[in-house]
Structures are given as C-alpha cells and as structure tokens.
Write a structure and sequence with these properties.
The protein is an all-alpha fold. Helices cover 60% and strands 0% of the residues. The protein folds into two domains: 54-144 and 151-182, no CATH class; 185-220, no CATH class. It contains twelve helices and no strands.
C-alpha cells in the first residue's frame, strides 16, 4: 500500500469523531425544535381562546360560564375552560387531547351547530363530562379546591351539612356541583326533582332563597 493511501485512511479516521459529534449535535437540535414545537402547539390548544374558537362553545356554554362564579367573583380568581376540563399532569393531558381530537369529527359534521341541536343533545353531552369527573374523583376541581383548606365556619350551615354527608357517602365534587359553571339540562332537573320529592329532601338544600325550617318543624 502506498503512503498516499495510508495517509488518506488516517485522515478519514481522524475526521470520523468530528462527523459523529456533528451528527449528534444536529439531531439533538432537531429533537429540541420538534419537542419545543409540540409543547408550543399543546399549550396553544390549552387556552380559553382556543376553546371558544368554534361557535358551538362560544355561543352556548361559554356565555353561561361568563355568568358564573368561576368567571367573576369577589376574590378575582378565575377558572378558565382548560382549568376545569384539561388535566394538568402530562400523561392525562395527552390522553385528554387525543380524546378531544375525536370531537373535531362531530364539529365538521355539524353535530351541534345550532342552538336547537345543542339543547337537544345537552343532557347527553353533560352526562359524558360528569362521568369523566366521577371516574377521576373530580381531579380538576381539586386542583383549586381542597377539603383540608376549607374554612367551614365561613360556609352556610347547609353547605357544612352537605359536605359532611358527602364525605360519609364517598361522594365526589361533581355529584353535587353539576351546575356550578353551566346551566343544568332540563331533563336532568326534571329527574332530580322527582328523586328529591321521593326522598322528601327539603327544598332549601338546593334553593338558597328558600327559608330553612325551624329545628322542631316536621319538613315534608
């Protein structure tokens, strides 16, 4: 073998580490850009502005939410759409995003593209949300609300009673607070009134404006 060939082989071996390092840096940079772009897109879809970018949400549930305590209250703390409907931890957030992608199909099919369609499907849609929150033990509610942080001395008497009862019965937040940010479906209200009447539940437990009966009064 000539000296020329030997020199060429040695030069290639010397350049190999540099080429490998250059390739590694290139792929690392590409990975960072892709990961950054993915997270940017993920956070972009995790904003209230994105949630109400379709008229189904903007013209229906969002308008109701604006009249709720989650939108405006004395303390100025606002819970937006993602706070209540999107998990904070990464794994559950990705799972929810994948599930939400299916909703695009119904959007393009015009499943609830009018107020009439939305009202007709409202109870069914609400049941899906309630079921998810029951399965997660109202996980998103507990991101802001903590039982250990509750000052029961500042709660109404009926709230103290209901929270204590819920704990005994192993109920979760959504079991009692279904109408906290959106109007309740008429079908649900009708069914609940029938149930409360059968159970002889006092009206004041749900209707704050109704007087609480004296302790010695038989409330039927």
């Amino acid at each position: 073998m000539s000296n020329k060939n030997k020199d060429s082989g040695q030069t290639s071996k010397k350049n190999l580490p540099a080429a490998t390092l250059g390739s590694a840096i290139f792929f690392i940079l590409i990975g960072i850009l892709l990961w950054g772009g993915f997270n940017w897109s993920l956070e972009l879809t995790n904003t209230e502005a994105f949630c109400i970018s379709c008229h189904e949400m903007r013209d229906n549930v969002y308008m109701e939410y604006r009249d709720s305590a989650h939108f405006s209250n004395p303390t100025g703390v606002r819970a937006t759409c993602p706070d209540c409907h999107v998990p904070r931890d990464w794994i559950h957030k990705i799972k929810r995003k994948i599930q939400a992608s299916h909703e695009l199909i119904y959007h393009f099919l015009g499943y609830i593209d009018s107020r009439e369609k939305f009202t007709e499907k409202r109870f069914e849609l609400a049941q899906h949300v309630w079921q998810v929150m029951q399965e997660t033990d109202s996980r998103e509610c507990r991101n802001c609300h903590s039982e250990t942080a509750m000052d029961t001395a500042k709660q109404r008497a009926v709230a103290v009673e209901q929270h204590a009862l819920a704990k005994i019965q192993n109920k979760t937040c959504i079991d009692c607070h279904k109408g906290i940010a959106h109007k309740l479906p008429e079908k649900f209200l009708e069914a609940e009134h029938e149930r409360f009447e059968a159970e002889k539940t006092p009206c004041y437990r749900c209707h704050e404006e109704m007087a609480r009966p004296p302790a010695d009064e038989n409330w039927d």
